[in-house]
Amino acid sequence: MQVLMIVRLTSAPTEAILNLVKPETEAVWKLYGADKVRSFHYLADMSRSVLMLEVENLAEAEAIAQQLPMVQAGALKVELLPLKPYTALEASFTA
């Protein structure tokens, strides 16, 4: 299943955040190599990052989020949005 993970910085001290950039990047890259993170982007206003996860279930997505160094340190707040295929297009072909 695909899960959209939206992350934003909290009000954690800047120095604490900067010290976690490299470990966070390494963790995301490892998940990308394991085909758990399919893509990652910024919102156009750069206020949040968005990661597309490919997981077995929502519990796995939650576990992935909780293993990220910035999440563990309280520097990131995570929102997980489970997705499912859009099937309403089929109705327009049968009408």
Explain what you see.
This protein is α+β, with helices and mostly antiparallel strands. It has one domain: Alpha-Beta Plaits, CATH 3.30.70. It has 4 helices and 4 strands, in the order E-H-E-E-H-H-E-H. It has helices at residues 14-33, 58-67, 69-72, 89-94, and strands at 2-9, 37-42, 49-54, 76-82. A 4-stranded antiparallel β-sheet has the order 2-3-1-4. The radius of gyration is 16 Å and the shape is elongated. It starts with a strand and ends with a helix.
Task: Indicate the radius of gyration in whole angstroms.
Answer: 16 Å
What is the CATH level 1 assignment? Alpha Beta
Note the overall shape: elongated
Helix content: 40-55%
Mean pLDDT: 94
Number of domains: 1
The CATH topology assignment is Alpha-Beta Plaits
Strand count: 4
Q: What is the annotated CATH architecture?
A: 2-Layer Sandwich
Note the gap between the termini: 29 Å
Low-pLDDT parts are none
Strands of the largest sheet, in order across it?
Answer: 2-3-1-4
Total number of helical segments?
Answer: 4
Helix and strand composition category: alpha+beta
Order of helices and strands: EHEEHHEH
Question: Going by CATH, what is the homologous superfamily?
Answer: Dimeric alpha+beta barrel
Q: Which percent band covers the strand fraction?
A: 25-35%
